[in-house]
């Protein structure tokens, strides 16, 4: 690692996503030759003791319990927001107005109105060279980026149909405790925004098209759960008290893209046996691609122009230096994992800041996904009527 201009990061939040982002900030400058060096300067959290323990564990230099004080500091360049969605807008807008570059976890906000205000703040800040990005990290899994490259290069011909799913099962047990992800006032929505947002972003990223109308249904399968006694990872231990689940457990919708193509979408945390299956399959006029996060080092590719006798989905191992992001890591053929996407995200954000360019996905991209989420919710409340995004 060479000495470059530092970019001093303050991260607000220290839960599961805090660990993932910390890993990204720590590792990216050690594997990628970055134009500037991110420094893990301040970790911010409401609980002083837990924040200090997390900071010590992940290597943040300082801690604070006051994000306002932290973003007012002159020695902070980047604010990374990994809190539940209800605080994204307030922190992001204040940070942008203070001239800090902002990376914000997905979904961008808990409502379209908040996402609009954040996007307006981001656009005003961009005029002063201040950058912002939303953390749809899965775009940066090499096989997902490679899928986008193949589609853009015309290797599957014209896109005709899209199938996107994000399947998890960590709520299948009806006694699994409540977490903030099951509280609408904190999370905005349930499976729809937490994981459906990833499926929407990835399908749009890979195809290069945008959803313009949707027809959907949302359902809560377990409406009451034990309250959380102690959080661990996505869940934790249950207390004796019970609380109401106020979000959807399952989101199903059909969507039409701007080029007329139809897509089917499913987001659920009740897909028994499916742990983290974010899948996007795109059928084109001369071929198809299928990505599955549970097999993230591979991409399935069907080349319909190949000889009929040898045609079939081929499993391409996306582990070669010629593939996106891979050259920076291990010798050819060696695998990457869930956490690498966060290093790629840190890398892309730092490079865009250093180059004075607008990184993607921008807050405007995040707002567009928010509008899709909102349209699905409206459609569901309106007998699944087709709803314009
Ligand atoms: C929980 O369902 C979750 O942690 C999401 O919130 C993340 O965005 C996704 O990366 C994994 O699943």
From TrEMBL:
Listed Gene3D superfamilies: Dihydrodipicolinate Reductase, domain 2, NAD(P)-binding Rossmann-like Domain
Keywords assigned by UniProt, alphabetized: NAD, Oxidoreductase
GO MF terms, alphabetically ordered: nucleotide binding; oxidoreductase activity
InterPro entries: Gfo/Idh/MocA-like_OxRdtase_N, Gfo/Idh/MocA_oxidrdct_glycsds, GFO_IDH_MocA-like_dom, NAD(P)-bd_dom_sf
Organism superkingdom: Bacteria
Limits of the Gfo/Idh/MocA-like oxidoreductase N-terminal domain: 7-126
GFO/IDH/MocA-like oxidoreductase domain segment(s): 147-289
Keyword Oxidoreductase: yes
Protein name: Predicted dehydrogenase
């Amino acid at each position: 690692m060479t000495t470059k201009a530092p970019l001093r990061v303050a991260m607000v939040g220290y839960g599961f996503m805090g660990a993932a982002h910390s890993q990204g900030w720590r590792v990216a400058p050690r594997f990628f030759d970055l134009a500037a060096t991110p420094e893990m300067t301040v970790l911010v959290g409401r609980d002083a003791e837990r924040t200090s323990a997390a900071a010590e564990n992940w290597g943040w230099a300082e801690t604070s319990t006051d994000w306002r004080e932290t973003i007012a500091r002159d020695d902070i360049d980047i604010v990374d927001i990994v809190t539940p969605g209800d605080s994204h807008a307030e922190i992001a807008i204040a940070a942008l107005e203070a001239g800090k570059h902002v990376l914000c976890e997905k979904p961008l906000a808990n409502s379209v109105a908040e996402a609009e205000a954040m996007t307006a703040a981001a656009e005003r800040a961009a005029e002063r060279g201040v950058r912002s990005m939303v953390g749809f990290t899965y775009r940066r899994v090499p096989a997902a980026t490679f899928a986008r490259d193949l589609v853009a290069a015309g290797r599957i011909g014209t896109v005709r149909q899209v199938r996107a799913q994000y399947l998890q099962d960590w709520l299948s047990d009806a006694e699994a405790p409540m977490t903030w992800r099951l509280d609408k006032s904190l999370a905005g929505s349930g499976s729809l925004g937490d994981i459906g947002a990833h499926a929407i972003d990835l399908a749009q990223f890979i195809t290069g098209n945008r959803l313009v109308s949707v027809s959907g249904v949302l359902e809560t399968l377990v409406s009451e759960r034990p309250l959380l006694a102690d959080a661990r990872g996505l869940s934790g231990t249950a207390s004796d008290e019970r609380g109401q689940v106020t979000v959807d457990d399952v989101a199903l919708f059909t969507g039409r893209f701007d080029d007329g193509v139809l897509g089917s979408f499913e987001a659920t945390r009740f897909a028994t046996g499916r742990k983290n299956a974010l899948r996007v399959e795109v059928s084109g006029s001369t071929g198809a691609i299928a990505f599955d996060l549970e097999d993230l080092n591979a991409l399935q590719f069907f080349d319909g122009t190949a000889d009929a006798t040898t045609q079939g989905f081929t499993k391409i191992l996306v582990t070669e230096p010629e593939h996106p992001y891979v050259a920076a890591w291990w010798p050819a053929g060696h695998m990457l994992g869930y956490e690498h996407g966060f290093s790629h995200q840190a890398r892309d954000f730092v490079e865009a800041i250093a180059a004075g360019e607008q990184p993607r996905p921008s807050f405007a991209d995040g707002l567009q996904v928010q509008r899709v989420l909102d349209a699905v919710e409206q459609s569901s409340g309106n007998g699944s009527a087709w709803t314009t995004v």
